[in-house]
Amino acid sequence: MNVIAIAAVTLRELLRRKVQVNLLVFGTLLVLASYVLSLLTLGFMHRVLADLGLSAMQLIGTLLAVFLGSTVVAGDVERRVLYPIVAKPVSRTEYLLGRFAGLAVALLLNLVVMAVALAAVLVFEAGSLATLDRAFFAAVAMLGVQFVVVAAVAVLFSSVTSSTLAAIFTLSLAVAGQLTNEVRSLWKGGAELLGTIVWYAVPNLGALSLNESVVYRTAIPDGTLAAAVYAILYAAAALALASFTFERRDLR
Fold first, then answer.
1. Burial (0-12, 13-18, 19+ Cβ within 10 Å), 105
2. DSSP-derived secondary structure letter, 249
């Protein structure tokens, strides 16, 4: 019950933040603007709409996860809001999980708003609901998984350092997570061990992207479910590490 109560408070708090509102509006406008840009590419409207729309959703959702997640714990510590909370019969782990849960729900709500906007544009362009196929919904779901992973990493850094450093570290890891395949291929050979270490330490967010399946209307890759399970386990490991370190952190 403590986790649910903290999550509800966190959700209300995050939905009122200006940065969250501004980024959501900006992301929705980007999705809608992709329709205007697609008019300049005759014959490829669906591809341009889907690619720009999904890319905009990914960018805005990731930024929200980074900047909101980096402050959910560190911000409370810096403002000394956390002290009266942990003085009550609430463990630090419950507090941490509640903050993460509220953050995850806020991110998923934002994702739904942007997905509805993109879906409306795609349906309007195609003149049919057939464009909202299985690949589209799978791509949106995988974006949600990406946001949850980035949020878990943000909560981890937020529980051990300041808001500014947490945002920098999380954003760096999120960018690296989109490039893990390329980085590992560059380090093949004599430095393959280093590439392998990076491969396992950095979340493979690139494997969670289904943009190509939506853009070219191809089948969903066979490894999609395995990639989603891997990402969820990575997020769980990040939260477990956050709980372990936060329980032992000196808040004075």
1. middle
2. -
Structure tokens at 42: 């005759």
Determine if residue 250 is left, alpha or beta; phi over 0 gives left, psi from -120 to 50 gives alpha, anything else beta: beta
DSSP of 176-217? HHTSHHHHHHHT-STTHHHHHHHHHHS--GGGG--HHHHHTT
pLDDT in tens, 67-124: 889 988 888 887 777 777 766 777 888 889 999 999 999 999 889 888 888 888 888 8
Using the Cα atoms of residue 75, residue 59, residue 121 and residue 209 in order, give the sign of their dihedral. negative
pLDDT (tens digit, 9 = 90+) per residue, 40-55? 666 677 787 888 888 8
From the CB of residue 181, how many other CB atoms can be counted at a distance below 10 Å?
A: 12
pTM for the structure as a whole:
0.87
**Residue ranges of the domains in the chain?**
2-247
Phi-psi region of 91 (alpha: psi -120 to 50; beta: other; left: phi over 0): beta
Q: Mean pLDDT over all residues of the chain?
A: 82
Cβ atoms 90, 121 nearer than 8 A = no
Q: Name the amino acid, one letter, at 72.
A: V
